[in-house]
Amino acid sequence: MEEEVELLEYQQKETPVQDFSLHFAARNGDANKLKELLKTKDPFVVDRKGRTPLHHAVCCGNQINALSCVEELLNCDKVSQKTNGIEVTKAFVDIQDINMETALHLAAKNESQKIVEKLIFAAADVNLKSLENKDPLGLIYSKVPAAMVSVLNIGITAKDGCEIMDESLQLCLDFGAIIGYYSEEEAAKRRYYAKELQLLSYALDDSPSSSREILTHPLVKLFLELKWRKIHYLFFVSMFFHITWLVLYTVFITEVYLLHCPYQPFKNDTDVTDDRADKQPLRFTWFGFSAKYENVSDINTCTMSASCIWMAYVLVGMSAIVAGKEFFEIASSRKFSWYFKGLENLGQWTLIISVGALCWPVLISHDVQDWVYEVAAFGVFLAWSLILTQIGKHPRLGLHVEILARVLKSFAMFMLIFASLLIAFALSLSLLLPGNRAFISLPLAFMKVVVMMTGELEYDTFFNGDDGDPAFPVSGRIIYLFFVIVVSITLFNLLIGFTVSDIQVGQGLQQKAEVHKLSNQLEQIYLMESFILSRKMQTLFCNRRPYLKRFLVARQSDYMDGAVNTSSDDDFTVEISIKEVPEELRRTIRCLAAKNSLGEDPCTDDDDDVEELNVKTVKRIVKEVLRMRGLL
User: Fold this and answer.
1) Do 112 and 28 fall within a single domain?
2) In what order do the strands lie in the sheet with 573-577?
């Protein structure tokens, strides 16, 4: 209503001869009235905000009416049926208002998928910047990723003269929708190679479920595969460094806090000649199979060898490098909060802090406090958990790690839902088994109930122990029996059933883990590319630009010594053989190539033929069996 009042005031006061009836009809979503007005009215007329009827049509509240109005505007005679229809249509959809926003900007902001697709196929420019320095393509990736599926589909074609089913089929892959097209003006200003994953990283801003349409598209998966082949050895260098750091961290803890300075319960006692001296503590060994004991004379000694001191210095230095890498990731992240959502990043910082706490007694104080052993215990567990995350970054191995993470999340939710039931049994058993050390507090009782859920029931210990009968033998056994039936049998097997079912069902854990794995792969490659193709690195390698170009999938024009090549569609097109495509993507890639090159989809026909063939085969076999038995 406010928009209509502004338009009406402008019509009456400022330019009385101007007619905005088209704008009103488009804003109200009245397609029939709009169709009648387009016979005599000019759709190129703009209002005070610089908006055409197309701008108002995409902002209509009703998506169905808005789509109808957009179709009427794009199909009217003044836009589509001229000698240069394509050029006129493109000029119409690319009109920018006073905020430098096109209709495609507004459609993407309103998350209108059908309208976005319609404007894209009407040759709308996806790279026009608004005053907020936002282009439509970035908004589409973040707001309506499903609208990009149609654009990505047409990016796969077969090379002219190639048979679709040929084993050596040559493919033409247009990665412009993934990398982002740039105009000739932008090409003239660029002096550096563009980051190929800058645009695709918009998919990381949303949850994996909302970006599934983009990340699981065959063209995107193939692009990530080709990008991985370009950059994978740098990933292995990073992975080797991290694993070396974590293994050194483990060796340092073992050498210092298990071998040279093991924890001694009575290390502050000066008298070791009493009965406790006979209780020699066991000594840890790296690869021994027989028990070894600490020497009584060495109980109170804690000497650091030179190797421990050198390991501490190396560990601190490597931790500083890891901290620098983490700061770079924070600076490269699209959002500050996006970085801290990753549990791996939080784990890295926790481990870096623990390095300082563990190296302090070795290098500075030379006094090991009891709490340091607890830090070492949690630290070594965290270190090997981070090794698992490093393994999970590999595209071939990441799916298994992601499935484990998903199962752990499902288990956590399962335990949260049924926690009240476990607490009920914990408190009941605490009342009916008084004096039992396992039930002297709620945390201990809850932990005991969880352990009992796995099958460690200890019936004889509770009811037939050396201490005699329990205080409440009948009630205790009844509650215990309920626990065995409800928790140990039903609840535990229900948990296993849910987990197995989710893993086996295609729509379950495997599909979710696949999307999350692609998100992690995209994130890792994006961070590496941000470092390699940063301006400082490109300036440093200014005389060796071809070395950096090997990390690019698509061709990009060289910008050397001021000689600038204008943008070309060939910059984003890559020709590869079908043999270079991963096996699981070949069939889908062939289908899309056939549909775009030949105008037909052989896969659908093949599926129908296979189904029909199977039915005919079954009928023939049944008839033969009946004929052999004399029934026909």
Assistant:
1) yes
2) 156-158, 170-174, 573-577
